[in-house]
Amino acid sequence: MSENKDRLVLKTKDGDVVIQLRPDIAPLAAERLRTLSEQGFYDGVKFHRVIEGFMAQGGDPTGTGSGGSDLPDLKAEFTHEAKFLRGTVGMARTMNPDSANSQFFIMFAPCPSLDGQYTIVGDVVEGMEHIDKVKRGSGSSGVVKEPDVIVSMRPAA
């Protein structure tokens, strides 16, 4: 397995963020992010939900939190070995565990309540300081008015 094959470069207005995918624990989700990144799916997509001290969520082309790609939803790939820590990348979903599609979130801080409940698809290995600068939302929903966007996201290889 090529390490670069499993790395994505997410460009923000402030700089590059390198995500190391985890196909060892979430092969379906890792392949989905890689495929959509190769297609340019995430280019210009908003960080529509950002909660201070919790996470930044993006990956919905509608910018509303209710959209996804044309690909089918993914089966949950929950693990109890990996934990949601600062920089962990998780797959967003509805209350249905098998509903992850294109949306993902990046943790600002550890959140043990997510462990074993959501799919961990990767980790930020460089550039977390740029995610820290993403514009925050307000209220408990964290919906952002005039949100920052993912400039582009592509495989590193």
From TrEMBL:
PANTHER family per record: PEPTIDYL-PROLYL CIS-TRANS ISOMERASE-RELATED (PTHR45625), PEPTIDYLPROLYL ISOMERASE DOMAIN AND WD REPEAT-CONTAINING PROTEIN 1 (PTHR45625:SF4)
Phylogenetic lineage: Bacteria, Pseudomonadati, Pseudomonadota, Alphaproteobacteria, Acetobacterales
Group of enzyme by EC: isomerase
UniProt-listed Enzyme Commission number(s): 5.2.1.8
Family annotation (InterPro entries): Cyclophilin-like_dom_sf, Cyclophilin-type_PPIase, Cyclophilin-type_PPIase_CS, Cyclophilin-type_PPIase_dom, Cyclophilin_A-like
GO terms of molecular function: peptidyl-prolyl cis-trans isomerase activity
Gene3D superfamilies: Cyclophilin-like
Reactions the enzyme catalyzes: [protein]-peptidylproline (omega=180) = [protein]-peptidylproline (omega=0)
Native species: Brytella acorum
Stated name of the protein: Peptidyl-prolyl cis-trans isomerase
Family recorded in the similarity comment: Belongs to the cyclophilin-type PPIase family.
Keyword list, A-Z: Isomerase, Rotamase
Protein task: PPIases accelerate the folding of proteins. It catalyzes the cis-trans isomerization of proline imidic peptide bonds in oligopeptides.
A biological process from GO: protein folding
UniProt cross-references to PROSITE patterns, sorted A to Z: CSA_PPIASE_1, CSA_PPIASE_2
Ranges of residues in domain PPIase cyclophilin-type: 4-157
